[in-house]
Amino acid sequence: MLKGPNGSGKTKFLKTLAVLSGCGEGGWSEGNEPGELPYQAEMERDGQPVFYQDCYKDSETSFLGDGYFETHDFLQSSGEKRIGLINELVKHIEDRFLTYKLPREVRPTLLLDEVDNHVGFAGQSLLWGGLFAKLSKKYQLILSTHSIFPILLRRENLLGPDNIIDLVDNYAEICVAELGRAIGSFNQENADSNS
Known about the structure:
Elements: E1 2-3, H1 10-21, E2 27-28, E3 50-54, H2 78-96, E4 109-113, H3 121-138, E5 140-145, H4 149-152, E6 156-157, E7 160-161, E8 165-166, H5 171-194
Parallel strand pairs: 1-5, 1-8, 3-4, 4-5
Antiparallel strand pairs: 2-3, 6-7
């Protein structure tokens, strides 16, 4: 997981992996040749399929085509729409690639750039604590985010610990400290109003 503020290189890093995997424009890499980059980069590949989605660029667009919002009237707010789009993306990936047929050591890679963009706090908890945890059992996930939830919900499993790469020194610690400060301010304000 790549974590850092705007301009720290999250998207550039994921885009580099996608282009060198042959899926720089989005979708699956299978059968595609690596693309060209305007800078020097090298990557070792294991030959497994790679899926890339720039979720920030497409934050108000269906991952699979036009008309998604028109056929799902219950998706009203932008946050609900994002959750709907993420579910749509996951369903597409699961339908497209039957991971249950693969040996455990063979896992496709998912490159998802800011998949939680425009998703509210409660929704982020569900995404990072539930959905991404399940996906990581089937796929090698490489995600970028501003969210604090990957830090708060970090875990270890049989495949190893969640690996969070800070692209700016101490950025994770800064985020946790600021969250703590906000919670302290909220608690103080509520204590004052209850006394």
